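G., the chain you wanted modeled:
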Amino acid sequence: MRKLWLKYTFYRLGLFLGLTVVMGLVGIPWVFAAIFGAMISFAISMIWLAGLRDQLSKEIYSKRNKPKDADEKVEDEI
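Predicted structure as tokens:
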């Protein structure tokens, strides 16, 4: 799960930084370039990174809902 989480985070961050730098170099003030970069990278990541996000959520769900051992069940009941 850790690799998948880092991969997703780096893709999102790279997309944001790439868009921000390109817009800043085009001549848009850096503050607005950062705001527009965040909005555009969010929209793009919702479409292009949906599969990766789904895989990550499935892994998180399976880790949170794994079957408990008999000892853990007894401790939970007490």
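The chain has four helices and no strands.

Shout if anything looks off.
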